[in-house]
Specification:
Length: about 250
């Protein structure tokens, strides 16, 4: 099983690490695009992965009732710039991302209605966010970038403006149907983590952004009906003939 290494996964992982199912899981932690690649190559059975990989999978099952989502301003997935978006000429796309990069492409065209040059970025790309060159930055590095860039365009907030729906960045996706009993126990482990936000904050001191606000006001972990609708809308943008999503 794979999971993302960012702060936004800490509440879910807190519950999993303290649950009885932990002994049944080999847990691999890395950045989103790498975990996604492992699932596509069948190197893991299930992962908390970017939802943009769903159209690339032969079989994709979305497991349980928890995800990494937002019902508005997510704070950690943004387009950063030194100039207003209508003056941006180039956008550097975060190499650690799949879903956020696809979301940015959609929003630039459909919401902001601008057509900058889009460039797949390397590891040091944040140094080049200057002048008329903007950048899509995700995760903990986005929380850092908030201190540096004067213009911040939150992608989840823009998606809500475009569609009226919340956005799902990552979900527990498997490449095969998982045992129903395991998923029930796994879901309960996720739930317990969400119930202990104060403990998660205490375990992860972070001076750049108030984590309690981040976990409770910017992020939304329950994969409810509105988020499922938002997810279906997003997958529809990615595929001309999107088949119905399989929620397990």
């Amino acid at each position: 099983m794979g999971a993302v290494s960012y702060l936004n996964t800490k509440p879910l992982l807190y519950g999993i690490e303290r649950s009885g199912i932990r002994k049944d899981i080999e847990l691999i932690i890395d950045y989103p695009a790498r975990i996604a690649g492992m699932l596509l190559k069948d190197e893991i059975d299930m992962g908390l992965v970017p939802v943009a990989i769903i159209p690339q999978m032969k079989e994709a099952y979305i497991n349980g009732d928890y995800c990494i989502g937002s019902n508005g301003n997510v704070a950690s997935v943004c387009l950063f710039s030194e100039t207003p978006i209508e003056r941006v000429e180039k956008v550097l796309l975060d190499y650690q991302s799949r879903t956020s990069v696809q979301l940015a492409r959609i929003l630039l065209k459909e919401y902001w209605q601008v057509t900058p040059e889009l460039i797949d970025a390397g590891k040091d790309f944040r140094d080049h966010i200057k002048g008329t060159t903007a950048g899509v930055v995700i995760g903990d590095r986005a929380l850092e970038q908030r201190k540096q860039s004067p213009y911040i365009y939150d992608l989840a907030e823009a998606w809500k403006g475009l569609t009226g729906l919340p956005f799902v960045f990552a979900a527990w996706i498997s490449n095969k149907k998982m045992d129903a009993g395991f998923i029930r126990d796994f879901d309960e482990a996720n739930r317990q983590g969400i119930l202990h936000i104060d403990d998660v904050v205490a375990e992860n001191p972070y001076p750049l952004f108030p984590l309690h606000d981040y976990f409770t006001q910017h992020l939304s972990y329950t994969l409810d009906m509105q988020k499922r609708k938002g997810l279906e809308r997003f997958i529809g943008y990615l595929t001309v003939s999107a088949s119905p999503l399989q929620f397990a």
